[in-house]
Specification:
With 160 residues, this protein is α+β, with helices and mostly antiparallel strands. The protein folds into two domains: 65 residues; 81 residues, Glutaredoxin (3-Layer(aba) Sandwich). Strands 2-3-1-4-5 form a five-stranded mixed sheet, covered by helices on one side. Strand 2 and strand 3 form a beta hairpin. Helix 1 packs antiparallel against helix 2, helix 2 packs antiparallel against helix 3 and helix 6 packs parallel to helix 7. It starts with a helix and ends with a helix. Bound molecules: FE2/S2 (inorganic) cluster (FES). The site of FE2/S2 (inorganic) cluster has 12 residues, from helix 5.
């Protein structure tokens, strides 16, 4: 089955679950999450939105439910890169670092690489301005970043 028909099937199943369980049903959400996990092997951010909308619930509630379901994986992102977009890092050259990262990965902020492995976003100041430009990868800080360091770190990640 191709991705489009998988999505269509899931949409139909989701509508059926909403009809069966009713809007705002957490049991219904659990079923939908199980179904999504089975169909796609993970629950992407867009599926979280889709399920929340279908059951007329806030996305935060769906995410909380996922936390209590160990068999459900929220996405297959392995590396979450966060770049400081704050003014003091910018003064020290963060724009070039960010440009290098975006160009190397071929994605913009709030996007994920096509293999789903690396996501990228910006954050306005980590409150570590003296050590900037700063980026964070999987909660670990990388300080005094420049173009060369960014290329080096990315080459390690991308080749894994
Ligand atoms: S501006 Fe980058 S850490 Fe504050």
């Amino acid at each position: 089955m191709n991705d489009i028909s998988k999505e269509e099937n899931f949409k139909r199943d989701l509508e059926e679950l909403v009809r069966g369980f009713g809007e705002e049903s957490q049991e219904g959400v659990k079923e939908a999450l199980r179904k999504c996990q089975d169909d796609f092997g993970l629950v992407s951010k867009s599926h979280v939105t889709q399920i929340a909308d279908a059951f007329n619930l806030d996305e935060k509630i769906v995410k909380t439910i996922i936390k209590f379901m160990p068999t459900v994986k929220e996405s297959n992102v392995e590396y979450e890169i966060i770049c400081c977009t704050g003014p003091r890092c910018a003064k020290n050259g963060s724009r070039e670092v960010i440009k290098t990262i975006k160009n190397t990965l071929g994605i913009d902020f709030n996007e994920t690489t096509s293999d789903g492995k690396i996501s990228l976003r910006g954050q306005n100041c980590f409150k570590k301005c003296k050590l900037g430009p700063n980026i964070m990868i999987n909660k670990k800080f990388y300080h005094h970043m420049n173009k060369e360091k960014a290329e080096e770190i990315l080459s390690e990640i991308v080749s894994k």
